[in-house]
Amino acid sequence: MREADPLARRLLFVVGKGGVGRTTIAVATALLAARRGARVLAVETDGAAALGRALVVLRSQHHPPPGIERVRHLVIEGQAALEEYLGLIIPIRRVLRAVFESGVYGAFVTAAPGLRELMTVGKIWYEVEGRAGEAEAPDFVVVDAPATGHGLQLLRMPQSAAEAFGVGLVRREAQRIVNLLRDDSRTAVLAVTTAEEMPVSETIEMLATLKRLQMPTPTVVLNQVHRSPCSEAELGVVERAAQVASGASRMLLQTAAELARTEARWAASGEHQAERLQEHVRGAIIRLPYLFSEEFGPIEQLKLTGALGDVLCPPPADVARPL
Amino acid sequence: MNPDLPPASPRRGGGLADLLAGHRVLVCVGSGGVGKTTMAASLALAAALSGSRAIVLTIDPARRLADSLGVGPIGNAPRPVPLDPFPNAKGGSLDAMMLDQKGSWDALVERHAPTPEIAARIRKNPFYQQLSETFAGSQEYMAVEQLGALVASGRWDLVVVDTPPSQHAIDFLEAPQRLLGFLDRQVVRWFVSPTGGFGWSAFQAMNRTAGFLLRRLEEATGLATLGQVGDFFNDMSGLFDGFEERFHRVMGLLRDPATAFLLVASPDEQVLGQVEFLSGRMAAMEMPLKGVIMNRVHDAGLAPGLERLGDAERRDLLEAGLRGQQPDGEDLAGRLLANLKAHQVRARGDALRIENFRDDLGLDTPLLQVPELDGDVHDLRSLAGLHRYLLAEASATEVDGDAQIRS
């Protein structure tokens, strides 16, 4: 049993560099939580659309995965969130329109880096906490946070805001958000990486930043882990056999040996990176397999969801597991 | 291939050798994580080995690559890269420089601020600090600004530019425009008083309605920093005078026929999906794509005759070859077969996507394929090892023959 089950919190941030499978993992957590019966809200931010696309593909399957009907999707645009927020502050519509149309507003919005991020997190807070009691309010909100640098900006802004403004409305709001983000009974973080040098280095940096921000300790997922198809001794056997064989048998053995060697090398360098990462992670790192496929489609998505589910929600020990 | 030897003279019309020889600026664009930095470094090295004075401007290299290029995270100056591993190099030189975003802003302020006092005041301004570190597009702008300075110096025959990691390849070209829009005179005028009577604070006091709105905005967002913004623009106003002009000069440089844009991509479906959009936008900006490097291409390396064999026949062949051997575990042939099939399926997916992509791209743009290499490319020799893929368009069999480069 894991100490902190990230699926049992109200809010889950999935963070990681582009290309490591962050969106896939976010979708997997949404499906797993929904399968447990939660009303799920899957969130992505400015400009991203991969999460929405993945959900559409899954829904359009002949047999949609169980629980997907309980997954809603939301794109939060920082600009729109800001305007929505200002609408609450300045309730007079005419005045509000004047604000939006003025050059000052444009200047103001661009001149305040981080304002959009702040509003994005504010909107997430609202979905998690602000709608309590509503029939449709989600039980589980998963955020596919943008690629690391920007994603961290999202988590950092409320804190900067709370520190920058001594008093007033913003200070109170920012503090409320900070409290949610830091509360490990409500919020969890899942850091996704592959076992390669750059992604692991960035993840190590990110773990340090999250710690500085006093965010909950993340669950770390190592995605796309290669497995050697045979042992070192067997590789030797195959390579020797290739030397003595002849004709098509020899050619096939040579190629098979080379490809097995390639996988073995990926596995070994991945293991090295995994060890480097483990030095910065207290608990166990979740490993998900590298999937060979013509393209990454719904079958692969569900395979990975299953693999993550085996770790995050293992069936009770006395129940026989189907193969 | 022996990395000690300089690359074989490339075939005419094949690969990127002509592109390197015929341009003064090479900009590598592409989304993050596709190996842009490595390709930029490898191309600059190729130019240097063929006798050019080349420099690579890198953005965020992996540590070991940075080490072998001799560039660190600090310092914003070109450093010579010793070409000792290549005794047959034809007298060219290679420099490497890492773009340090914060450092570039400081240098810009230093260069253009009217007095040292103003420069110091700008650097201390919290808004400036935030802008130079986090403003979307400022890294791209700085890369463009730095590129202009390198070309203007006349010290190099070829400048190869790696671009900041971004979600979309086009960001590099559009982000500077956004920054320029932000620094637009119209906007700046709200904050700066050009004639002394219409300053930010004066405006706030004079215009009651606007003042009310702005106070509400300040209150709503807590942006007491608006004062800082005003100070910043006041101090920077001298800098902005030349800003637009410099920007347009550099954009002109990017449109120059002596500048080539190269897309670095991987056969990943998400990456390729963007390309049609990208090449359209680039053509509209008069910055056409002159080449594509398809990196991390998977290849199972099966000889043509073996590709058509069915599972049962392959298994027979493998088992026949392994007969009499003593493997550790069960069904070694089955595991080898499964691994082989997995690689084949993946390679087929890549090939299909690349084929579709090539159709969209048009015939006259060269497309070079670089296989996925197991092991980081991080030293000069392995960078030179990439030249066989980049300089001459390798046929499929050549790629098969030496799909493994080792450092």
| Major sheet strand order of chain A | 3-2-4-1-5-6-7
Name of the CATH architecture of chain B: 3-Layer(aba) Sandwich
- Helical content of chain B, roughly? 40-55%
Placed side by side, the strands forming the largest sheet of chain B appear as 3-4-2-5-1-6-7-8
Q: Main sheet of chain A, how many strands, which sense, barrel?
A: 7 strands, parallel
Oligomer: heterodimer
The CATH homologous superfamily of chain B corresponds to P-loop containing nucleotide triphosphate hydrolases
Shape of chain A: elongated
CATH class (first level) name of chain B: Alpha Beta
Number of domains of chain B: 1
Per CATH, what is the topology of chain A?
Answer: Rossmann fold
Greatest interface by residues involved? A-B, 75 and 75 residues
Number of helices of chain B: 20
- End-to-end span of chain B in angstroms? 11 Å
Roughly what percent helix of chain A?
A: 55-70%
Distance between the termini of chain A: 21 Å
Strand content of chain A: 5-15%
Question: What is the fold's blueprint, element by element?
Answer:
The complex is a heterodimer of chains A (323) and B (407).
Chain A: E1 11-15, H1 22-35, E2 40-45, H2 50-59, E3 71-76, H3 78-89, H4 93-101, H5 103-111, H6 115-130, E4 140-144, H7 148-164, H8 168-182, E5 187-194, H9 197-212, E6 219-225, H10 232-244, H11 247-278, E7 286-289, H12 298-312
Parallel strand pairs in A: 1-4, 1-5, 2-3, 2-4, 5-6, 6-7
Helix pairs in contact in A: 1-2, 1-12, 3-6, 6-7, 6-8, 7-8, 9-11, 10-11
Chain B: H1 17-21, E1 25-29, H2 36-49, E2 53-58, H3 63-69, E3 79-80, E4 93-98, H4 101-112, H5 116-124, H6 126-134, H7 138-153, E5 158-162, H8 171-182, H9 185-191, H10 200-206, H11 208-221, H12 226-255, E6 259-265, H13 269-273, H14 275-284, E7 289-297, H15 304-307, H16 311-322, H17 332-361, E8 367-371, H18 380-385, H19 387-390, H20 396-401
Parallel strand pairs in B: 1-5, 1-6, 2-4, 2-5, 6-7, 7-8
Antiparallel strand pairs in B: 3-4
Helix pairs in contact in B: 4-5, 5-12, 7-8, 7-12, 9-12, 10-11, 16-17
